From TrEMBL, chains A, B:
Protein name: AcrR family transcriptional regulator
Region Disordered, annotated ranges: 209-254
Record-linked NCBIfam families: ScbR_bind_reg
PROSITE patterns: HTH_TETR_1, HTH_TETR_2
Residue ranges occupied by any HTH tetR-type domain in the UniProt entry: 8-68
Keyword Membrane: no
Record carries keyword Transcription regulation: yes
């Protein structure tokens, strides 16, 4: 294993151990000793990557931005739907992302500014929605900035409720419902029937494509799956979503 | 002061001191000794009302249901809008309600089942939305249960974002935006223009009416403002909202 790959893997092991520790003991109740014991690494390996518990928490919070896979779909509103779908799917499958979201939502002695992670999502969604407005996808009078803040807030609460009620198993269904209710209030009527809000079906396609890629000859455990941090936005995991979208009828705003 | 009124006031003082203590130190960092010192009460007075810190936290969580003022508006969708408006206004002004919401959203050593407070809101909103469906206010195919869970989730996240960005000062504006975006996706088109989503204006009317009531001759500090817990749902604070609504044009679903 190349040295860089080993470093990425060690860092990921620390983040996963920290995510599990914070989940069980809470941030304030957790210690680097406990995180070390779960990771099976030496204290030297830990301190090579992170000087403190606070630094690990900061990395977990920052990992939320790495999960913002920017879609390349021509229809910008479809791009925002795809972004939330991918993010919801990762929340279901990635304990490191879940830990970052929890550190953001909760008030602990970890005193990072709490706006940054919301702002990361707001920047990406806001940019897509301004594109949607320029392409004539939004209803007149609908302000991209206001819709952006609504989506970020609503998604934050929806994933929280899905966690409490169903350990996030029904999250894709809840995000799909959000879009069905929301689109008539923000999108031009001619576009709404062409937007694909069936997130559960698409994520299933997505997951199968990932499995196929991992099972393909030449795929080695070191090479796939890559950690999310090493995957450039708009490639990798987002490809199956984009491919599934391309198979649909072409859509355009009228 | 009658004995019962004094007991209600003492209980409220404990809850307010606990709300401030949890806010500063977090639930896990707070102690009954610290809560006592902030309330200025004796330990005997505290234990008369609450046997433990856990019991105080449970009362704070339960106070969320007391803030669910069920509106009596004929148009049920207007009732749901009014309910969220009143709840948002109370979040801005009531530290006890804010503490209950935080204990619900965050994962601490306080191990109450976390579904109950969401379920209280879901029951009230669900009942109103089933009424809306019976009255023909909802679009065909829109399921009251699904809309209910969306509103509870979205509201939870929106108040969280408003807290982080603006200490909840912009909460009424954010809730108003939620309704403007959401209504075209759930309400019959003829009803949408008749629904009043200008929550900021109505809450200002509401607040002025409360101030007038407090300044009115005969109002004593003991009698007004009543603690939220002592006020039956559908009366008291909800009256000005209902009165403001009645001054509008009559609306009906078509």
């Amino acid at each position: 294993m190349a040295q860089q790959q080993r470093a990425i893997r060690t860092r990921r092991m620390i983040l996963e151990a920290a995510a599990a520790t914070f989940d069980e003991l809470g941030y304030d109740g957790a210690s680097t000793t406990e995180i070390l014991s779960r990771s099976g690494l030496t204290r030297g390996a830990l301190y090579h990557h992170f000087p403190s518990k606070e630094a690990i928490a900061a990395a977990l919070v920052a990992a939320q931005d790495e999960a913002l896979v920017i879609p390349t779909h021509t229809v910008k509103l479809q791009g925002v739907i795809d972004l939330t779908a991918e993010y919801a799917f990762r929340l279901q499958t990635d304990s490191v992302l879940r830990a970052g979201v929890r550190l953001t939502v909760e008030q602990t002695s970890f005193s990072q500014p709490k706006i940054a992670p919301y702002q990361g999502a707001a920047n990406v969604i806001g940019s897509l929605l301004r594109g949607a407005q320029e392409r004539g996808e939004l209803l007149p009078g609908v302000r991209p900035q206001e819709v952006t803040e609504f989506i970020v807030g609503a998604f934050t609460g929806i994933q929280l409720l899905s966690q409490v009620y169903d350990n996030r198993r029904d999250l894709l269904h809840r995000v799909s419902a959000m879009w069905r209710f929301l689109l008539p209030g923000i999108a031009v009527p001619g576009l709404v029937p062409h937007l694909d809000t069936d997130i559960e079906r698409r994520c299933a396609v997505n997951a199968r494509a990932r499995q196929d890629a991992e099972a393909a000859p030449g795929a080695t455990p070191e090479a796939t799956p890559e950690p999310a941090a090493a995957r450039p936005a708009g490639t990798g995991a987002s490809e199956p979503v984009a491919a599934a979208s391309r198979r649909r009828e072409p859509v355009k705003a009228d």
